[in-house]
Amino acid sequence: MKFNIWKWVAGMSPKVAIGVFSILTALGIYFSFQLTFSYDYEDFFPKGDKELDFYYLFRDKFEHDDNFLLIGLQPETGVFDTGFLTQLDSITHKTQRLESAEKVFSITNYNYYLKTPFGFVDYPAVHIQDSLRFAEDSARLILDERVNGKLISQDFSTTVVLIKTPDTLSQLQSENLIAGVKNIMADLQVEDFHLLGKANFQVELIRIQQKEFTLYALLSFLLVGFVTYLMFRKLWCVFIAMLTVGIALIVFTGILGASGIEQNVMSTLFPIVILIIGISDAVHFIGKYIVELRKNSNKNIALYRTLKDIGFATFLTAVTSAIGFATMLTSNVPPIKFFGILSALGVLIVYFVVLFFISPVLKLFSLSQLDNNASGENKKWNNFLHYIYLTGKNYPRRILLISSCVLLIFTYGITQISTDIHLGAGMPKNERVTTDFNFFETHFNGFRPFEIAAVAQQGYLITDPEVLQTIEEVEQYAKQYAIINGVQSITMIYKSMHRAYNGDNPAAYLLPEDTSVLHRYNRDLSRISSSEMQLLLSEDKRYGRISATLSDAGTDSIRMVQSEIQQYINKLPNQEKVQFTITGTGIIFDKNTQYLRRNIISGVLLAFLCIGIVMAFMFRDWKMVLISIIPNILPLAVCAGIMGLLNIELDAPTSIIFGISYGIAVDDTIHFLSKFRIERLKGHDVETAIKNTFEETGKAVFIMSVILFFGFSILMLSPTAATFNIGLLTGITLFSAVWPDVYLLPIMLRKWMK
Question: 17-42+203-426+590-752: which CATH topology?
């Protein structure tokens, strides 16, 4: 006897189902409390890239270019006020005692090189208590390129305390460091200060992630419950549907917690995805069961017919949605891969829970408990659906014309999509972390790391005169760009030594042309503070560092500057002695943007292919495959077009929208075509099959579109631009999928399935 899964599920005991899922829910709740969050923007770097590999090699030679925490201060009395400097000195010394503060720099502990009869010494640059020297000190600091733009803003109104942190900083270490800094500022009664750095981002953004994860889960739950009530007008239907998706969400969250995998900024989308897809399956099951129960009072038979008609179709919608998410595996950005595979897993978990929980539990309720018998309301729905049906039947040319015009409009929008990504645009609105980011962007023109690595070739060292001269040329060329700030290299140490050798004359701050002088300075390097040398010169003297920062000018501007500098480097002499490579986190971020474009195209094409294969397996007809795929191109065009028309940047978070939208949008198409196929197997002609399909599935298509729209629109409550954009674009895209389902599908069926 052939095993029939639908009969087996229909015959399951409700008590067994409740018992099993009670255990799973309890385990899910327990492990959910072990869920951890992490923020590390390096996770978004593209893996397996040569430029990234070199970046890691270069960083190992020196240090991480982002391992710092900045305290920004803008005193009303001015940076060079003795009272403020006394306070700044206290902040500097107190922060040095913090556990994760490896080194601390400010203008109060900054030293310059002084030539004495005993050789070079590090001499304090600021004498707070010596009024005679103080005027001279301030003049020196203003002219010192090692300070100007780094520790003091170029308008001299702002200064920073720079705290060097370990290369790897745990969440707890970051929290303790930030708390320690805030306690110091409170003790010294400093109210107006700003923080910037990986540690601060990690603390603040994780706080926002955790808040949003809980908030979106709650709001989605309430909203979906409300819409479900509007559909069925029976509290028991709402209870069953919401209990089912609640169990699915808890089980999924528990799996995440048990895995020990740290969640990232994109994890806030999981509750929305699980709830939306779960409620879609639940609504289809409950709605179909009510229809069958009206026809046959035997609950087992009604449930079996429900499962027989839509069980496989619902399974396919789960598969296609999972495929939509799984296409993100084509990305070489780990958080996107992570989100894709876990979302695909979540979709399958939802189907598992809906199938094996909701099906047996439905048998516990009578028809009167589930069916509102609102004949007037049903008549309104039937009249509305009949109107849609007749419109599509009578005016196909008008519908095709409107669809073509919409497609043309949004195709134009696609051409306007911007990949000129600004970090500030993605920062959460009305949050302290964004205010701090803008403060440093305004006063220091950005702190986005930009590096040019100088690599001495075989037989040469960075400290060789010819190599130093070439580094100086590259350094001076880079300084001409407004978006590049605070340029420093090993040459500034030699220039500082030359100034010291020449009576501390500011005019002598230059790289000497006499190679014998440079050789003499090389012998004196051992007397120079090793900490500064380590930042700019590798221990083997084979690698040098031109270190700078970038303003948040956008990836297009950065790419242009990088290209022009690279062209200049390619024309330099002494290529056999030293070669240069542009690197740094700013460049890697830009590289990530270039990958995103390719990943989106390959991901969508892969989704078309995989879902096409699933459709071919289901319908065994190439015409039905095309009918299922072609209409769903329109929602994707709407999504991309809106991005271009509204000037929404294509970044890592928004790049996932296309996979999500297509995977979910095709669900209603499957339900429509599955019902159409069943009607055809009953012997009905094409027109009758379309009409009957409208009557049974039309209401669910519209209701689910409303649920999808409002469900994802909840994300628009987020202060983070990326999350807001995902909510806006996905909601609109999925709502727009109604048009092709109710109008274009029937037109194609009439044309091709005669």
Answer: Multidrug efflux transporter AcrB transmembrane fold (1.20.1640)
